[in-house]
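Per-record layout

source: Zingiber officinale
name: Phytocyanin domain-containing protein
length: 159
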Amino acid sequence: MASKQVLALLLFSAVSLLPFAMGADIVVGDGNGWMPDFNYTDWAATKSFAVGDNLVFVYSGGDHNVIPVGGVEFKACNGTGAARVFTSGRDVIPLKTTGRKWYLCGIADHCQRGQKLVINVLPATSPAPALPPTSSSTPIMKRTFQAAMVIAVAIAMMN
């Protein structure tokens, strides 16, 4: 019986630390989403990006896209020949490595009209200020569900 209580305590402790171990979902442009005629340079200057975070691009599917590019292509607003083009309207791009990352929209003149983003991704161990959730409660709901499931398993094991 005591070992079950110790296990339950360990599971509870692990769940309590879960929010600190997971990266943040960062909605590009916050409530504005991914669109032309918006200053993503100013927007990015107010954010901190780290390995483990996810960029979430929200836009009308078919009207825009997201193309990860290199610095030269970014400056030229050139997404042709890119290895990947995201088109879902809710694209989640995990930040897996440190350094500069460049993204643009390849539709019409959208990139020339400012629909492009450059960020600098920091190591996961770098402290980043906690930001309040913006336009999506999904990460909170996911973590709450995970916590509830672990607690339910712990309670079931105690019986």
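summary: The first strand starts at residue 25 and ends at 27. Residues 138-158 form the longest helix (21 residues).
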